[in-house]
Amino acid sequence: MIVVLKPGIPSERIAPVVAEIEKLGYEARVIEGKLQTVIAALGDERTHQSLETLTAFPEVENVIPVQKRYKLASREAKPGGVDTVVTSRGVAIGGGQKFCVMAGPCSVESEEQLFATARLVKEQGATFLRGGAFKPRTSPYEFQGLGEKGLQLLAAAREKFDLGIVTEVLAEKDVDLVSRYADILQIGTRNAQNFGLITAAAKTGLPILLKRGMAMRIEEWLLAAEYVLAAGNPNVILCERGIRTFETYTRNTLDLGAVAIVKRESHLPVIIDPSQGCGRADLVAELCKGAAALNADGILIEVHPNPAEAWSDGQQQVDPVRFAELMRSLPPFISAAGRPI
Ligand code: PEP
Ligand code: MN
Q: What is the pTM of this model?
């Protein structure tokens, strides 16, 4: 860390700051500039204490970290630039493997609705069926999901259509229940910093699909992933699902720049959710193409046999015709990023 002292601090007032830095386990190197003195605090910032407390000293202007705060999630954690490949039911996600399509309804509503969706997404090449049995709804009066009944329907669809199941776990108390049915546990945007839930989900050993919090910085998102890795579960899939901005034409602002950054910063697979990302069925295909060209590892998208009658997020779920068109239009963008089709 770099400790920047205020301008004009006389040398006799530097010693107490140096002593504090050393007390916290760092080696201190004082660099006297013409106007201002800085102290380089040498040591592993991830294992030593943060020096932020030094800002309480009247001599200190600022403390600037040098190292990344995420250790296991960072590229440097895997020498040789190797990417993590998360495998579920024999399907590999990440590391230049096939572009992964996870598709299905926002909410599981009925056997008829789920099976119709599963059939059509499977026919079009999806390898995972998504669907919420526990729904994080903004209003308590909206449909909250079918709960365990929904999970049973998802498990039945897995058997019938040979698709992996991605479903959200909303609360720590449901981790055991949901993990009995899911192949991949989804942590939603509202829980992206619920570290108790994240750690409990990680401990099941199932792959964790970690949505980006709607107000989360990239560093915070990677630190949330760090919780999964630190709990001993290497299988994390990061999912960019849009952040809150001032824009009103879309429900959220899908941050494709974040996908590019995270792919650079981390070895973990990154996918996008264009459905929550823009909240509009008419934009989903374009965002998927953009993500594929950016070398994202896959997409998680909402598909409904009849979006007009959906019990949640009807405006953003694509219908079977749009989904088929989308799947037909993706291959050139996937190949452009150098991936197998
Ligand atoms: C969802 O996938 O249906 C969902 C609620 O996602 P998010 O947590 O990104 O809003
Ligand atoms: Mn939804």
A: 0.93
